[in-house]
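Sequence in, structure out. Go.
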Amino acid sequence: MDLTTIGLSLGPNSSPELRQKALVQFEKLKGLDDGWETCYKLLINDILQLDETVVFVCLQVLENHCKSYHSNNIFQLQQSFRQALLQILSTFTSHEQKVFLRTKLCSLIALVFVNDYPHKWPGFFNDLVFISSVNKHGIDLYLRTLLAINGEIADREIPYTSEELIRNTQIKDNMRDSCIPSIVDTWRKILDVFVETAPDVVCLCLISIGQYIQWIDIDLIANDSFVSCLLNLCSNEVLQESVVECVDSICCKGMQPFAKLTLVENFFSSFVQARLFPPAFNAVVDFHLSLSRLFNTMIFEIVDAFKAEKQKDWSLTNKFVESIKSKMDILLLFLSHRDCDVSGAVISATLEAFWLLKQCCPLTAITSHIKNFLSAVIDKFEYEDDFDFENEGENEIVFLEYRKQLKNVFDHLFKLDSNLVLEKLNIVFYDALYNWENKSPLVVELAIHLFYIVGECLPVNMLSDSRNAVTQRLLSMVELLVTSNVSKMNHVAVRFIFFDTILRYDKLIQMKVELCEPLLACLIDERGLFSNNLRIASRSCYILCKFIKLMKSSISEYHSQQLLEKLQIVIYQNSRSALLTSNDLLFLYEALGILSQQFPCDKASLIMEQFLTPVFNKFSESLQFLNQSDLNINLDEKQKKAKIAANCISYTA
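Output:
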């Protein structure tokens, strides 16, 4: 079987038998000392006639030789192998190959590079530039080779051995001294020459710059000429995101605190002058997202530099504070952006910025920022008009996750100035609840949601102290929430947040006995247990049980009877349709047990007998079924009956 046949036999359409036979031949070829020569000759002589699978097989044979034999060969054989790779590279420049083949070849060249450079192959970069600079295809291979080399010597995600770390350090030191300036020159030429004709090549170049900047001299890139070139590329819609990602990588370079501050400030000023900060309203959202991520990085890097500098000399940190202050307005614009992805990209930067300001500024100096950001956060909390509450898809899940992240900003602002947040809550909450019939359900949901998350921000014991002024204010809000009948608003989001909020403030509700009746009423009608929305009905089972426990001393015998009648209807309906889960029913039976204690013993016994007799019957039926020895009974049916019996036991516990 010749090599071409091997390659075709390894294709996706070959039979398993032919594939297995080809694999055996392929392994034999890899084991031969001169197997690579056969592949090399085939690649340089017949590459136009070869299937891409065959080309890939040939490169694999060459890669195996590099890993298994090359380093132990005599110098002449090593030189022959290097020359063969250069000839294959030259062949690839003449005829465009698939991306995965180009990447494979460049990875192979990088493997030889780390083994032979600089002592055995000091002229590597001259050879690479000479062969690859002939055309666009060659430049593509040149850049992919640079990326592959960086992956071998500077990838932070690879756990290098101590020997490899020493080797990588020596290679980088030699490259800094000998060829990095030349490589930077080639980058600049590529950015100038191919911006119109080959934007894909320019994007590769920008990725290469972003990776190499982590270990080369920053001044080679962060200078007026190069930065101006990068900013000019932002006018090209195809390239602008790659440019911003490249600058993002440059800003992440490890540096001394004040040097990092200077670097970030210079880029920030350049982006402002180029009118990229703040983002243009009509720009593409994806570009806004890239800018938002870059701005997030800039804030992070300034704060990290501040943390490093304050450990040395606190008195010198004022420049960092002023830098953050100068960026708060643009940070607010990004956080307020109409697109949640763009807004979400600066949430962590917002937290970091306020952390720094809190360290260095009095509260009065940042109150205006707190107000502005609080308003932005509240606006962004509101559900979008097209949110599908009944069938949550990917967009809905993304927004809910964004809302969770946004809450971190809200919590942080509350810690900075709780009085200001409570005042804002007061305005939003009362405005929505006093006139809820004429408000959008999303606006009402937002007001109640804010009330809910404020409860999460408070100290654990605060809601138990009825003398506390904040507690009194919140108690008034709870009273309005229950008595306003806002739970009658026929919108799933409003009812969800309503029930979650009364559960959040259960300690306050205990202070107002008169809230018991209206609260339980909404739990046992179409707003709660009898809701068409199964999630609401399910949630109501738990909340009803919880409040019956808390308020049992306030529930009259008359109301207990009403509750029992409703429970009986729900349990009966569920026995026919099984809409509620076993856990939901467990809460209902627990509530039933508590309510029965409100009656004299004889009546309580009758109530329990009435409710539990069907449970005992179902248990007996299931047990009888399980005791049968019929081998024809389906295993799944047995497991189903066993689960029913277990549930019956839990209901009566």
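Check: The two ends are 75 Å apart (CA to CA). DSSP finds 32 helices and no strands in the chain.
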